[in-house]
Specification:
Blueprint (H helix, E strand, L loop, with lengths): L2 H24 L10 E14 L12 H11 L5 E2 L2 E2 L2 E8 L12 E14 L6 H20 L10 E4 H7 L5 H12 L4 E4 L13
Antiparallel strand pairs: 1-5, 1-6, 2-3, 4-5, 4-7
Length: 205
């Protein structure tokens, strides 16, 4: 198993465990008094996209642009324990750190920085990671519906930015922001959610 593959599996395990723990906590902790405020978080999405060009896209478009658009669109499907909530994604496709062997035959690596805006009770413990989990699941499901057939062991993965920064030796908030800025400078293409709830669309802030 390659280092990147191990990291991706660890990432998926983290995201699934976070969701499970949050679901259990929701049954025992009263969060009704927590105020929902507008806030943002960010994560890195590691994905696999088909090598073969999609026949349904415009001749001038790229697969990276389609990937970004699909992830951005998935924001309208974000939910928590079956209850949807408004979210907005700003997606920046960046060069993947994965090696060719990390993707199965017929697929290639892709990566994106995903900013998430939502009105949530951010002051609750682990709420930011919970929002990342919700956003990741929406993006994963969108990609799997549009491009079915990706083997489960090669499934998409995500890491909250603070965890990614720590894995790369950036242990302070300043270091995490420096990493974010450095990676944003390598952006290949970008997309944003069209039709997001007005309450979370930055155009209305």
């Amino acid at each position: 198993m390659t280092k990147n593959r191990a990291r991706d599996r660890a990432a998926r395990a983290h995201m699934e465990a976070t969701g499970a723990l949050r679901a259990r906590a929701a049954r025992t902790v009263d969060t009704t008094a927590a105020e929902a405020t507008l806030g943002t978080t960010v994560f890195l999405l590691d994905a696999s996209i088909p090598i073969q060009r999609d026949h349904g896209i415009d001749d001038a478009a790229t697969m990276e642009e389609l990937f970004a658009a699909l992830v951005a669109r998935s924001a309208v499907f974000v939910e928590r324990d079956g209850v949807p909530y408004g979210a907005y994604f700003e997606v920046h496709v960046v060069p993947s750190a994965g090696k060719p062997g990390d993707a199965p035959a017929g697929w290639r690596n892709a990566a994106a920085i995903v900013y998430v805006a939502a009105r949530r009770p951010w002051e609750l413990d682990d709420e930011a990671d919970g929002v990342v989990t919700d956003a990741y699941r929406a993006a994963r499901d969108m990609l799997n519906r549009y491009w079915p057939g990706l083997p489960e062991e090669h499934g998409h993965a995500a890491l909250p930015w603070h965890l990614l920064a720590g894995l790369r030796g950036r242990f302070t908030e300043e270091g995490a922001q420096d990493l974010l800025r450095e990676m944003r400078e390598t952006t290949i293409c970008s997309s944003r959610t069209i039709g997001a709830d007005a309450d979370v669309d930055p155009a209305n802030w």
